From TrEMBL:
Transmembrane spans: none
Lineage: Bacteria, Pseudomonadati, Bacteroidota, Bacteroidia, Bacteroidales
InterPro entries assigned: Cycloisomerase_2, Lactonase_7-beta_prop
Protein name per the record: Lactonase family protein
Domain of life of the source: Bacteria
Length: 364
């Protein structure tokens, strides 16, 4: 299915005569725009059948990563550019009609922003080639104020071709409000808090050191907030941590990338907290599946080959499907998910888009 055919079905998908079934949810996809893509695309996705219906699109340069506000009414999307024009965009989102409304943008002052998160008060971007974290206060109408400051990562990892300059890859809010960032080149996870009065980040030292050459990329928490899972791009390993008060204690390190291709990418926990999924690229592209034990540790239970370069993926809120953005195959693959085994099955209901790289579902 291509996007034109998807749009033809959109009228029925949003028709007030037919209405929405309870299983329908809104979905947004971000793309690289170097091959003619508009940027952001909105869909209606049926969580019972795995079928997507296109709604509309918005022209945004390289929205390679974005996040919804907690109420879903705003989207904060990076424009990933390796120069002084890199920005974070604020975009209004109508959850009923699935439409976009551009609000404003602010410079990141750091090249190649590749990650964004928000707690509703501020938004954070991790600027990969800039090696910095940018902080943006969010105004009452959902627009972004200017970036207040930046914090830098360091260089020094042993991988000279990949860690020779500072890189930052992820900045998230921990369940207790601390901010954790991955220092890709310094092989560290850093911890900060936001001082609202003084409008600055305060350093809370290093949350965890990672084995040199690992290249920490994405960090996610278990639903109960007791455990954190780190995907390392260069080592291809997942590190399991227990978490408390801004500190991470390593419990386990387990391989996700058997090809040793230095292409570890995304990581997510199933909604029920019973499984962890990772994506790897460059060789043996696919999804690795882990079962979560009683103490947060992982057991590898399977792997699913996918299309080329699965940079990002998402699990539906009801846990029925896992969607993989295969950048170099210009498609999003839809896999059904067995909730008991965690294993995946291709439904062959691909969504065809140019260079898709980020998939998010409207927050329920």
């Amino acid at each position: 299915m291509n996007f034109k055919s998807i749009l033809l079905g959109a009228a029925l998908a949003v028709s007030p005569v037919f209405g929405f079934a309870d299983s329908n949810i809104k979905m947004v996809v971000g793309t690289y725009t170097d091959a003619g893509s508009q940027g952001l695309y909105s869909f209606s996705f049926d969580q019972s059948t795995g079928k997507a219906s296109g709604i509309t699109s918005l022209k945004v340069d390289n929205p390679s990563y974005f996040t919804f506000s907690k109420d879903g009414r705003n989207i904060y999307a990076v424009s990933e550019k390796n120069n002084a024009t890199a920005v974070l965009n604020s975009i209004g989102y109508d959850p009923v009609n699935g439409t976009f409304a551009f609000k404003n943008s602010q410079l990141t002052h750091g090249g190649d922003p590749c990650y964004v998160s928000t707690d509703g008060k501020i938004a954070l971007t991790a600027n990969y080639s800039g090696g910095t974290i940018s902080v943006f206060p969010i105004l009452k109408n959902g627009t972004l104020d200017k970036s207040l400051l930046q914090l830098g990562s360091v260089k020094g990892g042993p991988n000279r071709s990949r860690q020779n300059t500072p890189h930052a890859h992820c900045a998230i809010f921990a369940p207790d409000g601390y901010i954790l960032t991955t220092d890709f080149s310094g092989d560290r996870i850093l911890c900060f808090s936001y001082n609202k009065r003084d409008k600055k980040l305060e350093d809370h030292d290093i949350a965890a050191h990672v084995k040199p050459g690992s290249g920490p990329r994405h960090l996610v928490f278990s639903p109960n907030g007791r455990y954190a899972y780190l995907m390392n791009e260069l080592s291809g390993k997942v590190i399991v941590y227990s978490y408390s008060d801004g500190k991470l204690k390593e419990l386990q390190s387990i391989a996700a990338d058997n090809a040793n291709a230095h292409g570890g990418a995304d990581i997510h926990v199933s909604p029920d907290g019973m499984f962890v999924y990772t994506s790897t690229r460059l060789k043996g592209d696919g999804i690795t599946i882990f079962r979560v034990g009683n103490k947060g540790t992982l057991t590898r239970v399977g792997a699913q080959l996918t299309g080329k370069h699965p940079r990002n993926f998402a699990i539906t809120p009801n846990g029925n499907f896992l969607l993989v953005a295969c950048r170099d195959d210009n498609s999003i693959q839809v896999y059904s998910r067995d909730k008991d085994t965690g294993l995946l099955k291709n439904t062959h209901q691909d969504i065809v888009l140019s260079h898709p790289v980020c998939v998010k579902f409207y927050p329920e």
